[in-house]
Amino acid sequence: MTPGEVGRSAFRFRRAAARSLLPIALSLVLAGCASSPVDNEPRARVHVVQRGETLYAIASRYGLDYRDVARWNRLRDPDMIYVGQRLRLFPSSASTTSRAAAASRSTRGASSAGKGASSARSPAP
Question: What whole-number distance in Å separates Cα of residue 96 and Cα of residue 16?
Fold first, then answer.
């Protein structure tokens, strides 16, 4: 074999290898772009605090905001959680109801603030 033939043979080999790897590489790229599989497991509704955990880390693990978890569990200080404590990871119906009532009160208070301080409420038009 002459040096030119060796070079052409090596080129053909590399080209054939690249052609056979292309479908595999393309499959891997497309698999990485696919959406995540559907999680059939129900979401945890309660978390039992383990040693060394923080409310922030627990909330983050479940994709929640630590302030929401603190409110749902009526924690005055989010830094004070205890080993073995069971934390609710969803709003209770009472917390959503009380939040709506508080919003309603603050809206009424703001609308009557500019009209003078009378204790009697005027009927809705």
Answer: 64
Letter for the amino acid at 25?
Answer: A
pTM of the model: 0.44
What is the spatial distance between Cα 23 and Cα 20, in angstroms, rounded to a whole number?
Answer: 7
DSSP bridge partners of 48 = 86
Mean pLDDT of the chain: 73
**HEC per residue, the chain:** CCHHHHHHHHHHHHHHHHHHHHHHHHHHHHHHHCCCCCCCCCCCCEEECCCCCCHHHHHHHCCCCHHHHHHHCCCCCCCCCCCCCEEECCCCHHHHHHHHHHHHHHHHHHHHHCCCCCCCCCCCC
- Ramachandran angles phi, psi of 47, nearest 5°: -120, 130
